[in-house]
Every structure is written in C-alpha cells, then in structure tokens.
C-alpha cells in the first residue's frame, strides 16, 4: 500500500493550478477572494481550471467571511451550478452561534452534494468542542477529510492536538482523513508524518510572495520532496 502523502494547494486561477500540478500537488482547493479567507469561485473559473489540469479539485462552498453559513439557499444553488459544470469534490464548514456545527446548513449541503466527497475546513478550529463536532458529523455522506491546524492560531499552537487526533484515527468520529493546514511550515512535517498524518494543505507557502503572486512550482516541489522523504 502506498504511503505517499496527499499535498493539496490553494489555487485562485489557471496559472496557480498549472504551477501546483507541475510542482507535484495531488489536489487543489479552488477559492476566490483570499482577503475573506477564501470564497466560492465563479463557475467559469472552475471550468477553466478543470480544463487546464487533471488532478483532483475541491471547490470551496462559502459566500462570506467568517464561519456562519449565511444564505443557505444561495450556497445550495452555487453547489448545484458547480456540480452541473463537472465539480465532484467540495470544501465547506459552518458553525452555529453556540460554537457547534450548523447542522441545518451542513446537512442541507451534504444532501445537495449527493455523495460527492468533501472536506470540513478550519471551522473545526473555532468549534466550542472539536470532539463533539466530529461525532455529530461522523455519518454525513461524502465527508472524508478534516482540514485543521489544531488551533485557531495555526499549526505552531495546534501541533499537539493534531498529533493526538492522528492517534485516534479509526475511532468513532475519527475515521475521516486529517489534513494539516493553517500556518503550516516545512519544519512541522517530520513530527506530523511520524504521527501518521498523511495529508497536507498549503496556501501562502506555495508562493514566493503574498496572495497577489502566483503559485510557484518550485515552492510546491520543495513540499513534495519533504513529504516524500
């Protein structure tokens, strides 16, 4: 069985996507507007990227800054339009006012996705109770990954949580893949790999400057090399 770790890279456009694939990314997270921490991209942007690369694409379902779902009907429409354009994998995650998962919104979207694979993103790092959230979402169709830094402040603070959760893989609520991301650095990789973490998510680390600079194939390749070491 292969032990190759999954490397997911945030892509904003075709240029990002092509560079990420050239550098060895296994999967892309497609978003727009990183000033709002990543929102749902236009259907045309998805279609252009899908035509340009042949690796997996996970498309963000999020219409506003923060972790509240907002207009659920608009989210459902966006999901339907993206699916009609060929999207098969998604990223989402919403919290209620109590800090628990917004089950109405998440279940509605999971139903609309109808078995498509999806990631619950870093909303888990803002949850009132991470363990409870995992158990509440455990049986939702399509959920196969949690993207998490282990802390709202990033992997530096969340590393012990990530290691502890990796050790629980296979327990109820912990059958989904743990994908580390959020302030992730190359020096975090050895400890996370030793703990059994086999999926990594990078955004700014795939670039040589800020979000106005494109993904660098060379930067992505450095991550691919580190994960494969």
Automatic annotation (TrEMBL):
Gene3D superfamilies: Copper homeostasis (CutC) domain. Signal peptide: none annotated. InterPro entries: CutC-like, CutC-like_dom_sf. Coiled coil: none annotated. Belongs to the CutC family. PANTHER family: COPPER HOMEOSTASIS PROTEIN CUTC (PTHR12598), COPPER HOMEOSTASIS PROTEIN CUTC HOMOLOG (PTHR12598:SF0). This is Copper homeostasis protein cutC homolog. It comes from Streptomyces cynarae. The lineage of its organism: Bacteria, Bacillati, Actinomycetota, Actinomycetes, Kitasatosporales.
